Amino acid sequence: MEPLLQPAPLDSARFGIQVARARHAADGDADALIQQIRQSSADLIILRTDAGDSRLVTALQQQGEFVIHADTLVYHGMSLHEGAGCASPDVRCATATDSAVIAAIAAASFQGYRSHYSANPLLSQDLVHKGYIEWSQSRLDESNDLSSTWVVCDGERVAGFATCDQLGSTVDIVLNAVDPTFERRGHYGRLLNHLIHHYSARSFDRLIVSTQIWNYGVQRQWAKAGLRLHAAMDTYHLDRRLKRQAGPAAS
User: Fold this and answer.
1) pLDDT tens, position by position, for the chain (251 residues)?
2) Would you say residue 183 lies in a domain?
3) Shortest CA distance to 61 belongs to which of 220, 247, 243, 246?
4) Within-domain flag for 40
5) How many CB atoms lie within 10 A of CB 72?
6) Which of 71, 182, 219, 238 yields a CA-CA distance of 20 to 30 A from 115?
């Protein structure tokens, strides 16, 4: 059977439990995924489904799984064409020497940020926060041609960053943030427009980015730059530890 449920080694190491992940499209094999979930020994399963499609989750609840609706993730994107965006002299590729300042920006920007991890009462919020710092460092390996990190500067100081993955002819902005000290100075817009210009000039076809549905401010920035909402996913946590705490009545 195709392994629809995949181990999540980074989450497992961070939280000290066995974590697995799955992404289920509306036309996917729900029965096969349910079977794999039922057979899994994972403490926590992070499941994403097409937004508004509750059939899989309802079936899991009927079979005794303890399910938390953790968040809704929205995806925005735009087609790229030559001449799109605007290059900025304040934006450059990051190097390993930027590691500490990028980590500091992530620490400041994501303090208290409400992600799907935040909805789970059994996950340490300190570890969730450290996860964002770890994530901000994940594309600084200059030997990886398919990933990159960019920074936007305010004079001599790094004010924000964005990490990107190349997926065929698409570029995905994986994580981005501006230091709260430098907010409302146009830095995020300059960074975003530079990325649009850079990847358009290199013949990429599409740019995509995602965030939690409640994060309205950044979505307004994306709309201003020409990105449009094109998909949404609901995130659920199936945490067997919660079920064990609840006792037999949850079965």
Assistant:
1) 568 999 999 999 999 999 999 999 988 899 999 999 999 999 999 999 999 999 999 999 998 899 999 999 999 999 999 899 999 999 999 999 999 999 999 999 999 999 999 999 999 999 999 999 999 999 998 888 899 999 999 999 999 999 999 999 999 999 999 999 999 899 999 999 999 999 999 999 999 999 999 999 999 999 999 999 999 999 999 999 987 776 665 44
2) yes
3) 243
4) yes
5) 16
6) 182
**In this structure, are 84 and 165 located in the same domain?**
yes
Q: Which helix (H) or strand (E) holds 149?
A: strand 147-154
**Sequential DSSP letters for 163-222:** EEEEETTEEEEEEEEE-GGGTTSSHHHHHHHHHHHHHHHTT--EEEEEEETT-HHHHHHH
Does the predicted model carry a pTM greater than 0.70?
yes
Residue 213 belongs to domain with CATH number:
3.40.630.30
Identify the DSSP state of 151. Answer: E
Q: Is there a contact between 37 and 31 (Cβ–Cβ < 8 Å)?
A: no
**Pairing label, strands 170-178, 206-212:** parallel
Task: Note down the domain range covering 244.
Answer: 6-73+233-250
The residue among 154, 83, 138, 121 whose CA lies nearest residue 237 is 121
In the chain, the number of structural domains is: 2
Angle among Cα 236, 239, 245 to the nearest 5 degrees reads: 140
Nearest to 28, CA basis, from 58, 66, 61, 56: 56
